[in-house]
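Progress report, Aim 2. The chain analyzed during this reporting quarter is listed below.
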Amino acid sequence: MSKEFKIATFNCENLFTRPGIFEESDEKATELLHQVDLLKAELKKPVFDKNEIKRLSDTLKGFATINDIRGKAASAKGAAEWLGYVSFEKTTLKDEAVNNVARVISDLDADIVSLIEVEDRLTLMGFHNDILYKNFLKPDGKKPYPYIMSIQGNDGRGINLAVMSRVPINWMQSHVHDKTAKNTLVFSRDCLEVNLALTPDTPLHLLINHFKSMGYSSKDDPQGNKRRLVQTTRVAELLDTHNLSKEYVVVAGDFNSPATSPSLAPLLGKAGMYNVNEELPAGERGTYRTGKDQLDYIVISDALKKKLGPVHIARHGVYTAKGEKYPTVTNRRTEASDHAAVVATVNV
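Predicted structure tokens for the chain:
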């Protein structure tokens, strides 16, 4: 008996934490920041006023905290006897854009979701527990995602890759250290390999990618194309370690180029791999903004292509002048993302 699984990829753009102070009103945020300054000043004094430190700490509970690196602040007489700092406590932004991200993921109802542009695992856990499951999945009787993982990549801004899954994760492998012949990093973020157990005896091997952005580049993006060509060539090398006619392998993510770009040829043109968007009519394969260009991909091995069912592009979270969208997507500010999600059904 075969079993149905849905595999999705989504560049969600919005899953980052913010200091909780800045989610308050301007008046309250200003006052809280003043209290932070007072606490920092107290912790620099040669003799501590511990009552004042406690008062300030209580006032800032939930917004800022003392990070005591060596556990000495409680017993220290003054600044010379402790090591630490005051840091802001962060929160997942409670915002209509983030709610719309949750709407997209809930409506996909996929078993495995590759997520692009996520801050870290704890942020994703908070989003899942406090927003996605609580407000969307649970009320609709849908299952949560017990397996949530992310690894810090090469992007200094904290833009990372992640996976949420309803099937167990066997193991993960990062490629943040992969180097070119010129000793530069291959991946702008990472190529995150995740081996999942569709069943105890049926693994699925997923490679999540966010290739070099087309933004901030000169006309026709020559440098970006060169970087993406290096990246897709490396992914193709990783695929050479698999028997694509027998193993269930998926490459998914935001490839940042249309399917016709030579920079994607090593991957999209690789024997044994298939771009599932080709199941759709040529004019319906796009994923970015108006749907003109496909930037987001699920590419599967021949073994999985034999098991492929319906393919769908979920556009309701994208704000455009035309096309159906959620009533809560009223402008660019409230859209879930400028990328549509892609979901493919397989029966294995």
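The domain at 4-16+93-347 is CATH 3.60.10.10 (Deoxyribonuclease I; Chain A). The chain is about 25% helix and 30% strand. These observations will guide the mutagenesis work planned for the next reporting period.
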